[in-house]
Amino acid sequence: MSSRTSTRTPSPRAVRWTTGLIACGLGLVTAFGLVAGLMKLLAIGWTAFLVMMAGAEMGRRAETHVVGTVARRLRRLAWAYGLSSGAMITSAALFLVPNAVSHDVSFGGLGIALGIVGGFAIHTGLSPQASEGEAASIPVVWVLSMHSLGAGLVIGAVYATMPALGAVLGLAIVSHKGPAGYAAARRLRRRGASVLLLLGPAAAVCIAAVPVGLIDPPTSDAFHAVVFGAATGLFLHVAIDFLPRCGWGSELSRAARVRPDSQSGPTARRVGNVRHHAVWSTLAGSMLVVGAWALL
Questions:
Q1: Alpha carbon separation from 11 to 16, 142, 292 (Å, rounded)
Q2: What is the pTM of this model?
Q3: Which residue has the higher pLDDT, 277 or 162?
Q4: Where, by residue number, does the polypeptide cross the bilayer (predicted)?
């Protein structure tokens, strides 16, 4: 890892300070929420937090034990990223997009477009000199944090009209927070960054939703549509970015430690076959969410 790349990774001290601040913030909003009786907001916020951090821990462990032949590592990575991104994209389409456009179709669509473009701008602007896999590791934390903050703001503003806590709402949270935490943690581990950085996006829903629920500010449907649409667009950008691309020099091939001089012979054929696994894994991730949604 070059010195330029390493300077982009937060120091252990910075991670500790960030973790402490997030823990204090989450503790404070939880206490205020309990006093005010905002149990629905707390349930949504804490479920999102726990699910995302559980996914992150699974991703951390999986990335720590990447073993086997090149072809085997590639297949495992293709399935890990394919399942995650397929589930994330389908979950966003089934649960997040309808919520965004339900407030206002035009402004919701505008918000989604702004979120996708904004996510690209963050990824590109924060790491313009790093390679593809390295560049996306730290910016993905910012994009996921902004997604969670935006969603939290809208959830806090409209919590009184939200559906009761149940299986569908739980599936909506689990099907996009869990895979996002898993995929982001693997990318962070490969960069040498701490998975604790994901505490920010994991806690952001609760930290944003409870204060808004306490204040109950006057807002409009157009405002809700733009904010939630932007949050949805940011998440869709991350989900698409996690799709398992299998070309030479891609994030997947670097993560599996494919040597640059292996572009011919048996290794090249095995790498080419991984493309089928990438497609099937993405479809499988999508179908898992659709199947769970259909059962509910």
A1: 9, 17, 40
A2: 0.84
A3: 277
A4: 14-32, 77-97, 149-174, 195-216, 222-244, 278-295
